[in-house]
Amino acid sequence: MRDTERGKSLRGGRDGSDEAATEWRGTRGARTSHVPYDSALAALRAIGRAAPAAAAVGLLLAFNAAFTPGFFDLTIVDGRLAGSLVDVLNRGAIVALLALGMALVIATGGVDLSVGAVMAIAGAAAATLAAQHGAGAWAAIAGALAVGTAAGAFNGALVAGAGVQPIVATLVLMVAGRGAAQLLTGGQIVTFNDPVLNFIDGGFVAGVPMPVLIGAGALALGLSLTRGTALGLFIEATGDNERAARLAGVRVRTVKASAYMLCGVAAAVAGLLAASDIRAADANNAGLYLELDAILAAVLGGTALRGGRFSLVGAVLGALFIQGLTTTLYLHDVSPNATLAVKAAAVLAVCLAVSERVRVWVWRK
Amino acid sequence: MVQRPARFRFLRALRVLRVQGLLSPQDVPLAATVGVLLALFAACAIAFPGFLSPGVARNLLVGNAVLGLVCVGMTFVIISGGIDLSVGAAIGFSGILVASLVQQGWHPLPAFGSALAIGTTGGAAMGTLIHRFALPPFLVTLAGMFLYRGSALMVSERSITIRHPFHRTLAEWGSGPVPPAVVMFVVAAAAGFVVARWTRFGRDVYALGGGEESARLMGVRVAGVKVRVYAISGLCAALAGVAMTLATGAGNATAGHLAELDAIAAVVIGGTPLSGGAGSMVGTVAGVLIFGLIQEAMPRAGVTNSWWFRIAVGGLLLGFVLLQRGLEGRRGRS
Fold first, then answer.
1. How far is B53 from chain A (nearest CA, A)?
2. pLDDT score of A268
3. What residues are paired with A281 via a beta bridge?
4. DSSP letter at B256?
5. Interface contacts (A, B; CB < 8 Å)
6. What is the pTM of this model?
7. Following DSSP, what letter does each residue of A99-150 receive, concatenated?
8. CB contact, 8 Å: B158 with chain A?
9. Does the interface ipTM go beyond 0.90?
10. What CA–CA distances, in Å, run from B114 to A86, B99, B186, B231, B246?
11. Which helix (H) or strand (E) holds A221?
12. Can you say how many angstroms the Cα of residue B251 is from the centroid of all Cα atoms in its chain?
């Protein structure tokens, strides 16, 4: 509880410097969890963050083991892995990518509402470059990634540079982004047919679908970037107590801006996957409402919404839980409309499970 | 009470205005919104002949009544420091509910009543969850959005035409001098203005948005205020759904798609910061009218592509956000 209030009072931004100094002492005394994996205890804690998501995925798998015949069957068709599990991994890759970036942004104490729109812009950029400007596939991919980086830099400049509240800052791109994507495509659905671009979502390497590999690669890259270097520590310090982090010498603005840029790049890759899936850029529907799924996945994966801690493994597990739930309901012939209601129940259950107030309440009883 | 000379009464009224914040520097965002609205209107009036006709003014109101209704409720939520993502889906749900009830032989009035009751109860339930378990409003209302949209699609995936003489009469008034949707919007906005400025509940909402802990210490009953704020938003969204059935003569489960986004944008353009604790209903109405003006002006300026509308709204939003940020910064330094 105290922790929540501390975070809030700081985000209010009205604090004087000596108050911040007290905060810093308080932080040092109360919590030592922001040491990266240099002790077994810290490593255990980091794994613990992903525990709710792991438990949810475990429950889902147990349910399927009991009630869904053939869920765990893996077959090889034409040298390609197939089966419900592969399907979950394959279709969950997009939300997993978004959740990876979102976890970093949320950990800095922000949120990025624009990832769905950035997906649409990146897809539109790649498709128009390849189909209308005759650029090669690699140029199209580079263009999409550049657009994603630019979008992230725009968000980062607003949040870190101008000091705008993250929800509002990213709302700007959320509102205008789809318009920009339609501007690129001229309001049309731009189709393309390019072996490399098609391969991004539809290809297989050693029998494994490309989205699974891209998702795994992004997770590995994210882990080495945040846990192999001090970036993760800086991100968590910034989100936990921005003023204290600045006083301790962390370049808070740079850290925040890089989190938004990483999120933008992740969204661009997700946009490439989505476009490659339908071999077209659909500016209206690509990534629609996926920002919400991504936030849900990150929170389910143990990333605190008020910032200060994140778990990339947890975020991916959260995304796989969401996709696993959808696939399971689909396999049980539940209508897609009822799936929305189940998803609502899942969101609430997750919120309640990670709520401190509920924990306090349960303990008191 | 002793009757004072008129001069004193005038001075007191001025002071009341100042105390109410109508003349204070905090109202610069509101002044900017109203200024942009007037400037846009003047520009349109000069650039497009015939823009000053009553027909255009009528279009402005009729075309934005549904959005405006949602914005009235959203203003309360945002002033209280929260956010409500469920309103767009609530429009779709109440619309399809009314349509399917009428199809089953109900009179439209009780059908409207049940839609409003469900909207209000749903909002109150979300408010209760948000307060009782200290959950982020963002995620709770997201769950509400999924639930409303899923339920609406379960009622009917297809649009249901409403065939009832009473409903048809109401709908036909829509093309007459007093369109019911506009009446609903104007009444809701006026009521919202009065409640926000001149009631205890209104002050409590501002206090809550300014800081929950200090509001609690001031004696605000935080639980009740929060629940009522989301109930009001749910009621307004349900009203918007009803207004939508009057405008289209049908209920559609997918109606109100992305309306939550437009509503939040209009409220922020109206000078209400998403951080809560400030803002006004006048600004929100101005924000909605700016939305309407852009929509009216674009085809006249030869821009028929809908995406420029979204880009323009995003640009305006950016401008206002930076303006608000600039003002905050200046106040923080002084």
1. 30
2. 97
3. A190
4. T
5. 144
6. 0.83
7. HHHHHHHHHTT---TTHHHHHHHHHHHHHHHHHTS---HHHHHHHHHHHHHH
8. no
9. no
10. 45, 12, 22, 14, 16
11. helix A210-226
12. 21
